[in-house]
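explain this.
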Amino acid sequence: MTESQHRSVTKLTDPKALRALAHPIRLALVGQLRQHGQLTATQAGELLGESSASCSFHLRQLAKYGLVEEAGGGQGRERPWRATALFTSWPAVADDPKVEAAVGLLRGVIMDHYVQELARWYEAMADEPDEWQRAVQFGDTSLYVTAAELTDLNRRVREVVDVYLDRHANPELRPPDARLVSYLHIAYPVIGPGERGEPGEPES
């Protein structure tokens, strides 16, 4: 990543592009490139436990929609690739049914990815240093807010998190004990029992 890519965003509005990203391997490839900066198909395959041929194919598919690009140098599967941005966005509300369906598919793949990554951490947590076990956050808070207030809250949280984004582009800014952390941003209206702030019926 270059310094100009501080909160750089690839905006997807084409349903074909959205469906292209809605694949576990492709999603993981974009994530690895954002983490490592540049990788060849061979290197990516070693990290993901996939063949270099598979990664090469998926990288080319991602490149069609501007999600990754060749970094220059190398040949064949030894060509380095890089992500074109640090973040990806898509319409929160889509008028086109095809876009809406593609966004739904992508969200489902991303949710599965979150669950798998979180499960991986909790499987390994007992062997992690105490300071990291204590630092991890796992919980939720129920709030009564308007849509405008939630939008503002999301903005303020993002501003706090963005303070650390330069460390992607500049490894020298990272403290010696810094690790890559996934900070999930999830906030949604409660649907079902308790959605009006009342506890659900206890199970008998």
